Amino acid sequence: MKFHLLGDPIAHSISPHVYSAAFSEWGIDAEYEVSRVSSDDLSEAMRNPQICGGNVTLPHKILAASIVDEMSDEVQATGACNCYWRTEGGVLSGANTDVAGLTAALGESEFDVLGSRVLLLGAGGAARAALHALVEGGVSSVAIQNRTLEPALALKKTAPNIATLVVEGEVLDVTYDLVVNATRLGLKPTDPDPIDLGMITCKSVYDMVYIPGKTAWVRSAIKRGIPASDGLGMLIMQAALSLRHWFPDQEPPIQAMRTAARVALEEA
Ligand SMILES: NC(=O)c1ccc[n+]([C@@H]2O[C@H](COP(=O)([O-])OP(=O)(O)OC[C@H]3O[C@@H](n4cnc5c(N)ncnc54)[C@H](OP(=O)(O)O)[C@@H]3O)[C@@H](O)[C@H]2O)c1
């Protein structure tokens, strides 16, 4: 059985280590490989008959939602898909495990989102999932800031029932309970911080990006005494939820997956 991670860039991903740990714990003959694909080739890659399913990562999650034949409620609500598989009838099914993955990771990190004011940075596929998870978690408002205005406005439209605001220019002078980074910034060591924490007041920080030794932004938050987590917890939880879609009768070995991720990051 073969599973793929489709995206571009893709080299930073430690997902193959995480899934291999699960397959080996279960004692099943399955492989998980990364495959760098362009937008033009995404549909063909997702429909490759030799592949049982897989994950989609940046920058293709929104495009993937338009490729699957049937979609979960989360894909419908967010317009983004990060997990797909072919059913016995050959139908391509899509889910968004980032939503519950982020909810679980925020819970693990003891960030209580109920009633909170959130600043969400980014408006791509990951931000779609983040906004949905935050709304489901009962936040009171979300301010969205993105480099480009259009995707931020499109993101706002996906959450019509709560107070969302698209911030242009400087973020508003309010205290945020939580700031979530759903941009790509932090993946490369030369990246600037997604936002200068000296310029805002916030009580906690969640960075969806993960790299060996934590991102500079998370380290800067911790230095300032702000509780902060990187995206490793979310990576594990969304992977566990993807496994539940592909292998509904198996219990994901979360501890083994976590250990494999830590080792892979230490060795990277
Ligand atoms: N931990 C996890 O499990 C997990 C899960 C999902 C995603 N992620 C991470 O989340 C990040 C975003 O993923 P995605 O799928 O949303 O990617 P995406 O769809 O390609 O979106 C990228 C986002 O980053 C912004 N961006 C890119 N370059 C930028 C720059 N130089 N300055 C400011 N903003 C910039 C984009 O803004 P524009 O709209 O202006 O281009 C957009 O908002 C990635 O680092 C990914 O690894 C982690």
Index terms:
14 strands, Rossmann fold, 6-stranded mixed sheet, alpha/beta, 6-stranded parallel sheet, 10 helices, globular, binds NADP nicotinamide-adenine-dinucleotide phosphate, 268 residues, 20% strand, 2 domains, single chain
In short:
With 268 residues, this protein is of the alpha/beta class.
If you consult CATH, what is the topology of the largest domain? Answer: Rossmann fold
Residue share in helix:
25-40%
Tell me the total number of β-strands: 14
What's the helix-strand series? EHEHEHEHEEHEHEHEEEEEHEHH
Rounded Rg: 18 Å
The whole-number mean of residue pLDDT values reads: 96
Poorly predicted tracts of residues: none
Structural class: alpha/beta
| CATH H-level superfamily of the largest domain | NAD(P)-binding Rossmann-like Domain
Give the strand order of the largest sheet, numbering strands 1, 2, ... along the chain: 2-1-3-5-6-4
* Number of separate structural domains: 2
Distance between the termini: 27 Å
Structural summary, described in words:
This protein has 268 residues and is of the alpha/beta class. The protein folds into two domains: 2-97 and 233-267, 3-Layer(aba) Sandwich (Rossmann fold), CATH 3.40.50.10860; 99-230, Rossmann fold, CATH 3.40.50. 38% of the residues lie in helices and 20% in strands. Helix 8 links the parallel strand 13 (205-207) and strand 14. Helix 5 (97-108) packs across helix 9. NADP nicotinamide-adenine-dinucleotide phosphate (NAP) binds at residues 57-59, 61, 98, 101, 122-127, 146-148, 151, 182-185, 187, 208-210, 231, 234-235, 238.
